[in-house]
Fold these 2 entries.
Entry 1:
Amino acid sequence: MDGFVIVETRLIASLLHILQEVTMTTVRFAPSPTGYLHVGGARTALFNWLYARNTGGKFILRIEDTDVKRSTQAATQAILDGLMWLGIDWDEGPYFQSERLPIYQEYAQKLIDEDNAYYCTCSVDELDEQKKQAISIGRAAGYDRRCRDKGAKQGVLRLKAPIGNTVFHDLFRDRFEFDNSLIGDFVLVRSDGMPTYNFTCAVDDALMGMTHVIRGDDHIPNTPKQLLILAALVFNPPRFGHLPLILGTDKSPLSKRHGAVSVMAYQEQGFLPEAMVNYLALLGWSTTDSQQLFSKEEMIKKFSLKRITKNPAVFDMEKLQWMNGVYIKQANPEKLANLCREFTSQKGKIGDIQLEEIIKLYQGRIKVLPEIYQLGDFFFSPEIHIPEKICQEVLSMSGVEEVREILTETKKVLSALEIFNPDTIEQAIRTMAERLGIKAADIIHPLRAVLTGKKVSPGIFEVAALLGQEMVVQRIEGGLCMVR
RNA sequence: GUCCCCAUUGACUAGGGGUUAGGUCACCACCCUUUCAAGGUGGCGGCGGGGGUUCAAAUCCCCCUGGGGACGCCA
């Protein structure tokens, strides 16, 4: 009996395994290497990746480089870099379509053999003319199929679109129905033998076992075309889902004029990949409770296609910055210090003095990493400049003589300290204030001005301690000259 | 010109026949406080318009308006 149970359990397990194999989610990100990974592409990649990880499926990276003129290796690398920076890893690939040409040839031949495709010899000018005419008589602008029955043996290869409608159900919206006659007999293979996007995409999605194709809105018109190819080739179609676009603040599609669109530009500006991913995930996806901050694990666990919205989202820099600030605040200072050093080397600044300690002081105050070099510039150079404005507003605030006395006394008190840390400094200052019968703030403000050259800084006791006793004394002396 | 998509505060969104229309960013105020942040508390502000259906519409249907996309030997 026991043996039977074991056998039965094993049987169920292996059946489940097979079932899982058959139904395993397979998705992909299929960019064309014609530029950097942009925010919209990154969001598309992220959603596919999240879905794959959520379902325990497979995420494939495929480079669609059939446009030889525009594709570059640098762009491919930039896309890979962008994905890696965001922490989006792939299980297969990258596949390059340019290396799969024989496969597409094979299927093109199949379409020809089965009378589902034909050669067209129309020139570009002729096609233009056809388009103009179609529009002038109020028809859909498209190829008029004049070469369908010519029996040409060369030219571009076109699909023979059947009469009827092509229907599909979108993952995020309703039913789509397209009239095949409006789709037209589109090009599958160029006259130079290079296959086109719609053809390679359809073939690869089928061959690579894609269960879901999640891509941008702009591909909606391509979907019926690919469905037609799939049908002609007798492949099972994947499920399609079209993500709404990401817009700029003026509601037009996000582009360079809205600021940075390249994902790597955000790295250069001092954003953390975790924040970027978190923000991107919220552009079109949400949970019922409107949770905002997610760890990667949490995001994977909670991700669901059902909760993707169909309306386009405006990319909001302010919220991204807020989120980045939150991630910086929570990050490990050592990790941040390493990131900051990259910025210093880029900008030619020196930042070796206890960078980690400085970061701790600024973690809760900055939105992007490089801000630390503006707000905390007085930490990074021995000399500081006290702007005239600060001199007037702070150093002569309660009377020049009084400030002079306060600073002189402060210098004396602080240089007498044997242990120089935030606590001892604070104690010394407060004691001094009490002794002189003034407010601690009356000491703190001038002290801040002479130590930092600013009216705003982290807690002055921490700042002073980090600067070190010698530097503090030196800066008070320097500041004293400015009190006049 | 033809086809198609979208519509909740300034932004991201929840809600999908009966809710004081909820959360987050931003903004404002107050608290905390050595300044600035952070944090805490509170506040401002919204269902694009018009018709239906219904006892009841942000929610369902239609029209309009607005925004966007596609119509390549680009992807």
Entry 2:
Amino acid sequence: MTHSHSETVHSPDEMTQRAYELLKESGFKLTKKRRELIDIFSNDQRYFKATEIHERLSADRPTMSYNTTYRNLYDFAEIGILEMTEYNQEQMFKVSCFPNTHHHHFICTQCGKVIPIHACPMDQVESDLSGAEIQSHRFEVFGLCPQCAQAG
Amino acid sequence: MTHSHSETVHSPDEMTQRAYELLKESGFKLTKKRRELIDIFSNDQRYFKATEIHERLSADRPTMSYNTTYRNLYDFAEIGILEMTEYNQEQMFKVSCFPNTHHHHFICTQCGKVIPIHACPMDQVESDLSGAEIQSHRFEVFGLCPQCAQAG
DNA sequence: CTCTTTGCAAAACATTTGCATGCCT
DNA sequence: AGGCATGCAAATGTTTTGCAAAGAG
């Protein structure tokens, strides 16, 4: 086990604590199901499909129902516990990077792992967009991570 | 009517001809329904929802069925007649930019209009991604276009 | 004790598929 | 004529909703 990209990989405990704080700040209750959900994301800081999450939660323990899973995933994304994006025609979820400095991601389309990208294109675009009201931007690079590229 | 961003707005005829060529090259037949579909996109070079397209096709003429609409939208995206992206939790479609030089877009989240962005961040990211196999990238800026910003 | 969260079931919605008929080339 | 395109209807898959019961603070 090497620690590549250790700059953005935090310990499960750190991520879990951060998630609990965000729940509290936003007035959500900390339930057993939510703890299980947060555990999955904290222990594997990559992108998951909603169905993958639901399967994991159903594996050994009593199932978390689909609607509760979805409700929590989307709620968590809204309050900043999770990052959400879409690729391979699927909605994907990952625990938010922490600390939350602005950055972008390379995302492995096979395993969901991310590699941080420090360049941000926004400083070069303002000139093209005078008069427009910028709300958000998205910059993502997709491909195979070094591990998946070797395996394939 | 001013011609802002005229560099990427081509005449409906140009877009239509280009679409017909792409259909032919890819072995698809040019049907009446497909011509209607292409007309909509050529005459309004912005992003549309699939449902919006379907409604337009159903407005005065005999309806194009949903499955034919979807089949064609996704087929057209695959052969390069359309560009496809996702925002506001919806799959959106727009006629491809022509000529097809590499660039990115500001997209108005209200009306679907686009403004080209000429900067591409990819030249700055390679160093972060050694060992990875890059397949694609996505860079999009969202907000309100000058017209929608003023109206709102 | 109160209010949120959860489960269940069903609804809503978007997309896909199989198959018979119809239309381009 | 032959093969792709289309419509219909139904299946699929994902996300949402309403409501009663259970759990957290």
